[in-house]
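Model it.
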Amino acid sequence: MSSIDELKEKVAKSCQILAMEGLVEGILGHVSVKIGENRMLIRCRGPEEKGLLYTTANDIKVVDFDGRGETLVDHKPPNELPIHGEIYKRREEVQCVIHAHPPHALICGISNLPLKPIFGAFNIPAARMAKAGIPIFGHSYLITRSELASKMMEAMGERDICLLKGHGITVTGHSVEEATVQAINFNQLATITLEAMKTGFEPDEIPAEDFDELPDLGTKFNAHWNWQYLVHKLSRFLS
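Modeled.
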């Protein structure tokens, strides 16, 4: 079990990685991790806000699922905190929630480009994600109230990913590492889809039998090792 300080560092790293990989820009986007029955750590904004790429552990604050917290002082939780809080209230298995604004996912959503399994071994988790189908929430407003988050959750169901049309994405995971890598995999699916459509040709879905030869490589390969790579890449990126 990670300590609160370790989790703060991990959430900060997730924010930085998402910025490095182009899923968030400037000050928009947020990451949280559940730390109890009614508490989470979440990326907040303070008086010295510098954007997600420069997130520090001091930007990560403890609040309850409704956004109240004694440690906030001069920091403010994100306006769309209900995305995080309502998911944690209703889905006990979820340990991390990410809300981001990847431009390629945005373009696919507003262009009604279907996110289909057009590749396989290139990125197996993204291929499986596409094969299962991407839930789409058809509203682009800010999700600032619990009832709006409930509507998003109706579209999302029990899935780990939801595309918010004209807005961004919501991603969940059993850990910060898993959710972060999941968000990046989804972004790669959207990026490849968009680039393929730019060729003017309709890409084929990979055959069903190909999926029989795409093994589940497990959390260690899909999340842990990729997270370690991203953290190392970040250290060089920021140096």
